[in-house]
Design goal:
Strand order of the largest sheet: 1-2
Shape: extended
Number of helices: 6
Helix content: 40-55%
Radius of gyration: 27 Å
Largest sheet: 2 strands, antiparallel
Order of helices and strands: EEHHHHHH
Number of strands: 2
Structural class: mainly alpha
Length: 179
């Protein structure tokens, strides 16, 4: 009987917490020829409980081609979308948590970095952002500074910063319009 004894009695435990005697089962990606772990479930067809299990790369590939409304008429698709938007209204109410990270509570970290690139205060208005962007874009444009790679890099940074801020303002306007 000495061989059937366990080392898990008493304190401290002799094995690590969560350690098991058996092997860990790993499900492989269902994509043909892939040898990675398939830990991301995806439906085999709309409204089906059956699932494929993909690795991260193949799950992304699968989701890009997924048509949620496949097989539905335009009226049925519109009705389903309306019903699901209605049941998800609680999530829309909490959308102000969407910045979800460090920032000042009104702008995300990316927006604050973009404002820093443009040399602006975090509480600046949209008109001032556009004015600063135009001024910096004109000053650093590659056509104006033809043989200056640093100016071209600054121009790209200014353009990217403006795109980040413009997209954030559009999201805010859309959220306000939905309310």
């Amino acid at each position: 009987m000495a061989g059937s004894r366990s080392n898990d009695w008493g304190f401290p435990r002799w094995r690590s917490y969560g350690g098991e005697r058996g092997t860990t089962q790993v499900r492989m990606c269902d994509r043909d020829g892939c040898g990675r772990a398939g830990d991301r479930p995806a439906p085999k067809s709309p409204n089906s409980p059956e699932r494929w299990y993909f690795c991260e790369e193949h799950a992304g590939e699968y989701n890009r081609g997924w048509n949620y409304f496949e097989g539905l008429s335009a009226e049925e698709a519109a009705a389903r979308e309306k019903a699901e938007r209605g049941t998800a209204s609680g999530y829309a109410e909490a959308s102000h948590y969407g910045w979800g990270g460090s920032g000042d509570g009104t702008r995300s970290r990316d927006e604050l970095r973009a404002l820093e690139v443009l040399g602006l205060d975090p509480h600046v208005e949209a008109d001032a952002i556009k004015t600063a962007w135009r001024k910096l874009a004109k000053a650093n444009h590659p056509d104006v500074n033809q043989n200056d790679p640093a100016a071209a890099e600054r121009f790209q940074a200014v353009q990217t910063a403006y795109e980040v801020l413009r997209a954030a303002d559009e999201r805010r306007e859309q959220a306000q319009a939905r309310r």
